[in-house]
Amino acid sequence: MKPHVNIVVLVDAVGALSDRTLNNGNLSLVDDGAFGSRGQGTTDLCTVVVPGQVVQWTAIAIDVQTTAEISAITFLPPDAAGGAGGAAAEEAPAGEAPGGGHENLDLKVWEGIVPAHLQPGVPYRYRLEVRMHEGRDSVLHIDTPALMCA
To answer: Which sequence spans correspond to the domains of the chain?
Structure first.
């Protein structure tokens, strides 16, 4: 088992701001997990993890002229979007995380530790909020990604 699993959030900020949505190919998620995650390259990524593993999220804008950063990660209640929910990880921006996260000058890394109480085989959906620039409609979100214990 790898001690960390990295989730990269690839954002087409120009497309997302124009369409006012992170769907339509404006966002894709990939991870480097060792357990066969489902939905690689889509907004429906279901990352397979194990208790105690550190999960790190990093946003990258595909256009070098624009910015994209994760503004929040919130685990959804069990009845939201057809999966389990609740506090599936302690999330916080790196640099503020009690888990010893760090902040890079160019990237903000969010991280959390997978708790031991998660039920195996159940997807724990989360809301991923992404900020692009400033102003109206600059923060968009999706509720489709999930973590799932092996």
So the answer is: 4-149
Beta bridge partners of 8: 30, 58
pTM, rounded to two decimals: 0.81
Pair of tokens at residue 120: 């195996």
Fold of 4-149: Immunoglobulin-like (2.60.40)
Residues in the chain: 150
How far apart CA 15 and CA 22 sit, in angstroms, is 8
pLDDT beyond 50 at 77? yes
Q: Give the list of residues 6+ apart from residue 65 with CB closer than 8 angstroms, or none.
A: none
How far apart CA 93 and CA 39 sit, in angstroms, is: 25
Q: What is the DSSP string of 10-74?
A: EE-HHHHHHHTSSTTTTEEEEE--SS--BSTTBTT-EEEE-TT-EEEEEEEESSTTS--EEEEEE
What is the C-alpha to C-alpha distance for residues 33 and 40, in angstroms, rounded to an integer? Answer: 11
Please count the other Cβ atoms lying within 10 Å of the Cβ belonging to residue 82: 11
- In this structure, is the dihedral angle defined by the CA atoms of residues 40, 25, 13 and 148, taken in order, positive or negative? negative
